[in-house]
């Protein structure tokens, strides 16, 4: 199916840092039809480098949505039954307000003048979008990686506005190692002479630094076994470049063509700042106490970026509060990327969970 991004603008958005954005844009796509009672809406939240196109084929670029194998007629998020929404996050560079957007006060891109944003700010903008569509309560919020963080944030921030949460391959807070990988990426961007303190919009973007940042990130998305199977120590024909080197260079250059370097800095920082325990001020169990949603938590055996123990911490905290939670660790060799490519078992879990939630919501 061909899809097209829609845009809406809100007068203002209050941020955790105390700044108010005036106005703020939100880019989004929808799939399926909203039922009469408006009880079949599902918000799908994207990972770090995703955007509003979660499914379908873009009519201009011909590109498939990042979760197209999960969203559509008869799929896990069945668009014959459900109304699926996906928006570009605040701070992004695919239509929602971010560092590359024009600051109405200066009529120039915000750049590094853009305020610090959090996962709660991203969810706050999503809530405005959902309300603008006339939806009082979502059937579910679902996403992997950073999308899973947003799903957790929804459950805590707006417990009465969502019936179920499906956090996949995610965490309630970044570990030191996860923060470290993001910092290496940020330093690669800022070390590029073309970054120019974030003021590169009328010149050349920091392509080399951003490409290196993406290369580092992409290594963490795969597993040792998946890289062995895909590349081994093979070299390209007629030169001495390893196939894995060529692949990473391609991924890096491809990313530069579609992503803003300052958005990279702001979004990775928002991920690092995310912490349901408020930097240890409370236990995770206490942090999740206000949640009234049902939960389906999924992790993958070979995911070393967001290892299963972090999902299990969430599950254990929910169970200590007697919350309705199901958990499954799926076998996979794909590493963190498994949530994007391991479709069969993941689909079966999501399909059954949604059906039960919908039945309970529509009694």
Number of H- or I-type helical stretches: 11
User: Which residue ranges are poorly predicted, with pLDDT under 50 across at least 5 consecutive positions?
Assistant: none
- Structural class, by secondary structure, is alpha/beta
CATH topology (level 3) name of the largest domain: Rossmann fold
Mean of residue pLDDT? 96
Euclidean distance between termini CA atoms: 32 Å
Give me the count of strands: 16
Find the CATH superfamily of the largest domain: Alpha/Beta hydrolase fold, catalytic domain
Largest sheet: 8 strands, mixed
Radius of gyration (CA) equals 20 Å
The portion of residues assigned to helices is 25-40%
CATH architecture of the largest domain: 3-Layer(aba) Sandwich
- How many separate structural domains? 2
Note the overall shape: globular
How are the strands of the biggest sheet laid out side by side?
2-5-10-6-13-14-15-16
Strand content: 15-25%
CATH class of the largest domain: Alpha Beta
Reading the helices and strands in chain order gives: EEEEEEEEEEEEHEHEHHHHHHEHEHH
Would you kindly provide a written description of the structure presented here, covering whatever features stand out?
The protein is of the alpha/beta class and 363 residues long. The chain folds into two domains: 2-174 and 275-361, Rossmann fold; 178-271, Rna Polymerase Sigma Factor, Chain: A, CATH 1.10.1740.110. The chain has helices spanning 119-132, 146-157, 176-191, 207-221, 224-230, 243-256, 261-273, 284-287, 308-320, 338-341, 344-361; strands spanning 2-3, 6-10, 13-14, 20-21, 24-31, 41-45, 57-58, 71-72, 77-78, 83-87, 102-103, 108-109, 140-144, 164-168, 294-300, 325-330. α3 (176-191) runs antiparallel to α7 (261-273) and α4 (207-221) crosses α6 (243-256). The relative contact order is 0.14.
């Amino acid at each position: 199916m061909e899809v097209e991004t829609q845009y809406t603008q809100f007068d203002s958005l209050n941020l955790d840092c105390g700044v108010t954005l005036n106005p703020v844009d939100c880019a989004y796509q929808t799939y399926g039809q909203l039922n009469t009672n408006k009880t079949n809406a599902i918000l799908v939240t994207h990972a770090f480098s995703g955007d509003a196109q979660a499914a379908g084929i873009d009519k201009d670029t011909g590109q498939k949505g990042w979760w197209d194998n999960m969203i559509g007629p008869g799929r896990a998020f069945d668009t014959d039954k459900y109304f699926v929404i996906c928006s570009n996050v605040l701070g992004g560079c695919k239509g929602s307000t971010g560092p590359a957007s024009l600051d109405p006060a200066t009529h120039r891109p915000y750049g590094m003048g853009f305020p610090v944003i959090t996962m709660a700010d991203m969810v706050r903008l999503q809530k405005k979008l959902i309300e603008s569509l006339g939806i009082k309560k979502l059937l579910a919020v679902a996403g992997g990686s950073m999308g899973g963080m947003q799903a957790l944030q929804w459950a805590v921030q707006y417990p009465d506005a969502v019936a179920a949460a499906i956090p996949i391959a995610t965490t309630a807070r970044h570990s030191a190692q996860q923060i470290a990988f993001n910092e290496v990426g940020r330093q690669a961007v800022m070390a590029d002479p073309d970054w120019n303190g974030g003021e590169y919009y009328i010149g050349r973007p920091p392509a080399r630094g951003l490409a290196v940042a993406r290369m580092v990130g992409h290594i963490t998305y795969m597993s040792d076994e998946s890289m062995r199977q895909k590349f081994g120590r093979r070299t390209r024909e007629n030169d001495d470049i390893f196939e894995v080197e060529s692949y990473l260079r391609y991924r890096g250059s491809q990313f530069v063509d579609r992503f803003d370097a300052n958005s990279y800095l702001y979004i990775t920082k928002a991920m690092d700042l995310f912490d349901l325990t408020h930097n240890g001020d409370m236990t995770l169990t206490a942090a999740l106490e206000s949640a009234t949603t049902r939960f389906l938590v999924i992790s993958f055996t070979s995911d070393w970026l967001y290892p299963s123990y972090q999902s299990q911490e969430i599950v254990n905290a929910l169970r200590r509060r007697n919350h309705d939670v199901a958990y499954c660790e799926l076998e996979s060799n794909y590493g963190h990327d498994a949530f994007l490519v391991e479709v069969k078992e993941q689909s079966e879990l999501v399909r059954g969970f949604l059906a039960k939630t919908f039945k309970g919501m529509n009694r």
